Amino acid sequence: MTEFLIANMAPLMFGSLIIFLLSGFPVAFALAANGLFFGFLGIELGLLTPALLQALPERVLGIMSNDTLLAIPFFTFMGIILERSGMAEDLLESAGQLFGPIRGGIAYAVIFVGALLAATTGVVAASVISMGLISLPVMLRYGYSREVSAGVICASGTLAQIIPPSLVLIVLADVLGVSVGDAYAGAIIPSLMLVGLLVLYIFVLTIFKPESVPALPKEARTLQGKALLARVLVAMVPPVVLIFLVLGTIFIGLATPTEGGAMGAVGALVLAGIRKRLNFEMVRSALDTTGNLATFVMFILIGSTVFALTFRAVNGDLWVEHLFSLVPGGQWGFLVVVSALVFILGFFIDFFEIAFILLPLFAPVAEKLGIDMVWFLVLIGMNMQTSFLTPPFGFALFYLRSVAPSTSYEDTQTGKTIAGIKTMQIYRGVIAFIAIQVFALIMILVFPQIVTGGLEEHEKIDLDSVEINIQQDAYGGGGAYAPPAFPSLQDSGAGEDAPAAEPDPNAALMDALKDSAAQDQK
């Protein structure tokens, strides 16, 4: 029995964690409990040493002192303040009036505002709920297809997963050891491509199914001319300027992601104050929500650190590599299996849990296969975004279902009775948008330049092929004088007449260069 436990400690740890997760036990405590239990078990069996667990305090302190993770509460606070100060309502109403005269105008407005909310709030729930409460009644009032209405709101809300400054990208960058700035730069073009595909789909509907996306009637367009222009400038320009200030300073290297997040939080407070919507209760509520989310993330990260420490000590990383070595297809086989696993798990667990549990296991394998880690990061982020839409467990569907009318109701403006939206109509509505996101995912797989094209290329030097020749003088040095080399203590037993072994300066220099390069890669 002891030999069996020692030989199978890694799969037993992983299986035990799956059982804990399926039982509904809190993820953070499940991770920590598994790590500690199997750590003590390994010590008892003689597989591990007690000194292993002495590394835990330093690891926890390392997490608490990680400056990058400070960006999470900053961006969360910024998004909550902007959302609760009424920015979403102003954006949707202004965009609806701007695009209303054309077919599919409200759908275009939802996509455009969804992208802006994604770049400011960064939270899927806030985007979907806001647009469900504000835009859905308008779309139903003027004859939009229920399937199209539900699908475009859910799909636009999930843009918060991939458009910078997404919390998903920050977490994935920290877990995969990638610069947050590179993660943001790599995600810009894919996210814009996805927005363009959504717009293209609505445009196709306006041609082939115009009755499903009608234009707003003239009586519904209350703003025109200078009044509309003023409303657009007041509602849209400030958040756009804030987005460019935050992301622009990060991209040009003027600010770190943490500093950019802090600037965004201050900017959100300023915008709320300018609109005269800033009050103590809103700030207190935003701080409570931010504190809860930040604590949630930190506890999961600490738990995953405890689990990873023991899992790697029992050669769990080698076990995972061995499993993927059995998958045919090399890089493509690995990417297909990982994508399928992340996609399926996205039905049941939050992206934080996927990031902290699975990605530390996949990252070493991806590096050994020569996969670009920024590209891998964006691929995983897009995959998680798609899982938010997939019936029957997609979180975006639940968010919309919670605010969409399920029964008939009387419209307050027209006085007409409008039928509610059935759950199956929401499910059918997202199918086309899932296909769009899968198509975008395939495009990134086939054309990785979509992600890596905007990144700086760092020249890679093979240190094993570099030769440095140093002219040696009579004493073996490179200068005018160098003291003679002393005999090695290990050679002292060879006899007094044995010649002294001279150190090779070329070998020592190359070793130092390799060590320095290894540290830079870490």
Low-confidence stretches at least 5 residues in length (pLDDT < 50)? 458-463, 472-509
* Number of DSSP helical runs: 23
Question: Taking strands numbered 1, 2, ... along the chain, how are they ordered across the largest sheet?
Answer: 1-2
State the helical fraction. Answer: 55-70%
Number of E-state strands: 2
Give the overall silhouette.
globular
In short:
The protein is mainly α and 522 residues long. It has helices spanning 2-7, 9-22, 27-44, 56-64, 71-84, 87-99, 105-120, 124-141, 146-157, 167-176, 180-208, 225-251, 257-274, 280-313, 316-325, 330-345, 351-357, 359-368, 373-387, 395-403, 423-446, 449-452, 505-521, and strands at residues 409-410, 417-418.
Describe this structure in words.
There is one protein chain. 40% of the residues are buried. A hairpin with a 6-residue loop joins strand 1 and strand 2. Helix content is 67%, strand content 1%. Mean pLDDT is 79; it is low at 458-463 and 472-509. It has a two-stranded antiparallel sheet with strand order 1-2. It has helices at 2-7, 9-22, 27-44, 56-64, 71-84, 87-99, 105-120, 124-141, 146-157, 167-176, 180-208, 225-251, 257-274, 280-313, 316-325, 330-345, 351-357, 359-368, 373-387, 395-403, 423-446, 449-452, 505-521, and strands at 409-410, 417-418. The protein has 23 helices and two strands. The protein starts with a helix and ends with a helix. It has 522 residues and is mainly alpha-helical.
